[in-house]
Amino acid sequence: MTIGSDRLQRRMARGAAFLGSEVAILGGAMSWVSERNLVSAISNAGGFGVIACGAMTPALLDAEIAATQAMTDKPFGVNLITMHPDLVELIAVCTRHKVGHVVLAGGLPPKGSLEAIKAGGAKVICFAPTLALAKKLIRSGVDALVIEGMEAGGHIGPVSTSVLAQEMLPEIAELVPVFVAGGIGRGEAIAGYLDMGAAGVQLGTRFVCGTESIAHANFKKAFIRASARDAIASVQLDARLPVIPVRALKNAAGELFSAKQREVAGHLDEGRVAMGEAQLQIEHYWAGALRRAVVDGDVEHGSVMAGQSVGMVTKEEPVADIIAELMAQAAAALEARAA
Ligand SMILES: Cc1cc2nc3c(=O)[nH]c(=O)nc-3n(C[C@H](O)[C@H](O)[C@H](O)COP(=O)(O)O)c2cc1C
């Protein structure tokens, strides 16, 4: 073992022990992408795969967990969205399958959900958008946190990963394991966040073009072609019509979304539509759009969620190669620290 890989192993030890994996790299849950194939590939390669439950019913999640367990004997997690109407039942499904880690995404966990997950024997990982909320989540008993910057693909907050890491790691990294996400494309960045106190990292965008990922060939092609500046956040055009920012590749759907916002705002001005109905039209615009891109391959009219690290995705390759490359880069960076 080189000095660099020894240093890397020591810096990842806490995160890896927490996850029960070989390396402290989580494959961030990606709706429609993070299913049995990609999740088991990440876990089999020594990382920690996470199933994206998204809008799955409890029966579908049940089948997906069982299928994943059939493809790997390594640990993996399940990502549940807090707004899901069947959250209680989905937690019960995870408990029945003895899933070791549940990641709660999409806002603060509703009352009783942390307790239900922990009572079932699983560890709870939450997203912490601010330092104050991180401390509150730790007080309420979460086992680990993810801090995710606006460079990430999918739904994003307003602050960059580098600022979140500086603000939050010195205050909370000793209390619970913290995994840094958003914009990580190479191992040097992983080494940097580990040095700052992170227990590990979470990557999404880099895994989309894994050979094992079932994302449509058009979706993967769009990733391979894109550069960082193509992965843009959706913009709210009217104060009355809230838009939750999502980072995705520029395409026709994004332009049509701007047109839709202007049209609905115009209807509001003219009193042709009630506020509630107008807001719903905006909220529902993207319904089914990620599936359309990932599963159907319509990368012009679907949502091609991608982070800024998409520029570092240059080919389709086995997940094990992606993880090995990240680890080698991180180890080399840590080796160079001594010089
Ligand atoms: C296509 C896509 C779909 C995603 N879907 C979800 C999701 O369903 N739930 C979730 O918590 N995060 C989702 N994310 C965020 C990832 O889990 C991960 O945190 C993020 O990709 C990390 O940043 P990176 O893209 O810069 O690596 C998604 C990201 C992408 C690119």
Automatic annotation (TrEMBL):
Sorted alphabetically, the keyword list is: Flavoprotein, FMN, Oxidoreductase
**A Pfam family this chain is assigned to:** NMO
> Superkingdom of the source?
Bacteria
Q: Does the keyword Oxidoreductase apply?
A: yes
**Which GO-annotated molecular functions does the record name?**
nitronate monooxygenase activity
What is the designated name of this protein? Enoyl-[acyl-carrier protein] reductase II
From which source organism is this entry? Sphingomonas aerolata
